[in-house]
Amino acid sequence: MKAFSERLAQLGWVEGRNIQIEKRWGAGDPERTRKFAAELVALAPDVILAPGSSSTGPLLQATSTIPIVFATIPDPVAAGYVESLSRPGGNATGFASFEYSIGGKWLELLKEIAPGVTRVAVIRDNTTPAGVGQVSAVQMAAASLHVELTVINFRSPGELEKAVAAFAGPASGLIIAQGAPVVHRKLIIALAAKHRLPTLYPARLFVAGGGLIAYGPHRVEQYRSAAGYVDRILKGEKPADLPVQAPTKYELVINLKTAKALGIAVPPALLAQANEVIE
What we know:
This protein has 279 residues and is of the alpha/beta class. The protein contains eleven helices and ten strands.
């Protein structure tokens, strides 16, 4: 939000002077998010910023006219938020949080940091459409990398704990697909540590919290870009005419403390590629 506000100010929109910003935080609670979506729509704002799928869906159910800009949605077409990436067609547009091919890159990086891994489970939240394309990309890469792949779909923390416990074993690792709720990140990181599973995450936030390695779009940059779309809409452009854009900046983050705890010696070549190394 700080990056979003700073970019808005650079574009001439300063809160308290020529723009008013109402904020709501759903904290991963679907009922609370639906309530707040209705509240915001009732205020009849000129435009609404929606971080991801959990807020965009309820907002689109609440309004088909107020412009909505989403900052990080894995697959807005599959979710039904836009007609196509090039021509959104409705009252929502914004920024996709990945390209499908990233799934193959995730598996390559996991094998690079933990070469002994031969069994990998991809974890995704079964309640969202996000992650389907990513899983397909991982599946395509699995055969050439000699990896046995499992997909773990979960709807609740308890379901996830049981599934990871059942999967864990020698030469095993995890990939967390985008769309796995950030509110579950502490549980996911704890399960990976408990079962000693080398795990690749889709965002820096997980690695800052103790995860091993992350590769994904630079999320702060996504919010700066979203501010640009908000600016264009405030100046008269329509969401239907603004194409959904893919990320332009990615980051690789490695946690050396976690690597040491897992007995992993991170290859120097991989460390050299990292945008950030957490020690």
